[in-house]
Specification:
This protein is mainly α. It is about 65% helix and about 0% strand. It contains 11 helices and no strands. It starts with a helix and ends in an 11-residue tail after the last helix.
Length: about 180
């Protein structure tokens, strides 16, 4: 499958599973099979209510399963603001303008950018370690979303030994924290 088609499909599959998600799924199915067939079978078995609850439990309540990729290396620190600004600059340089409520490191946004913009491929590749860290966490949780991230990772170059070590360290330590304005 063409990486751009894979990334566009993954962008849709990693979106919150609301009514629009379920309405789009039959339209996307022909383009997404066979790569995402295992994921689609699992989510259809869950159904809308259970999948929505799983999505919230996985991505909103578990720090280790974050769809905001700068969070893995920057946490909730000032450094994350700089990383977000760099991403926004990449988007603007390609003629993209995000909606006010979108953060540039949200994986579905990054995947859509990579699918539709030549420079997006390099941006996505630069977050390879974070993607692998997310994949490991989703696998550990037994989440069907691991199947989507696994397909995305398969479209990218394999991790180097140094990148694999960094991913393991990030998974063990979690995102960095910053104490601002704390008195002792």
């Amino acid at each position: 499958m063409n990486p751009a088609v894979t990334w566009q499909g993954a962008s849709h599959l990693l979106a919150y599973p609301d009514e629009r998600f379920w309405a789009r799924l039959p339209l996307l199915r022909p383009a997404l099979l066979p790569h995402f067939s295992r994921f689609i079978a699992r989510i259809e078995a869950l159904g809308p209510g259970e999948l929505a609850a799983h999505y919230v439990d996985t991505f909103d309540l578990k720090r280790r399963c974050c769809l905001y990729l700068t969070y893995y290396t920057d946490g909730d620190t000032r450094r994350r603001g700089q990383s977000l600004a760099v991403l926004k600059a990449h988007y603007r340089a390609a003629g993209w303008e995000l909606l006010e409520d979108e953060l540039p490191d949200f994986l579905p946004v990054m995947l859509e950018f990579a699918a539709l913009t030549p420079s997006g491929t390099d941006v996505l590749r630069s977050y390879r370690v974070q993607l692998e860290t997310l994949l490991a966490a989703l696998r550990q949780e037994g989440s069907p979303y691991s199947l989507v991230v696994e397909v995305v990772c398969a479209t990218l170059p394999p991790l180097t030994a140094a990148e694999r070590d960094l991913s393991v360290r990030l998974a063990r330590s979690g995102p960095p924290a910053e104490s601002v304005g704390t008195y002792r």
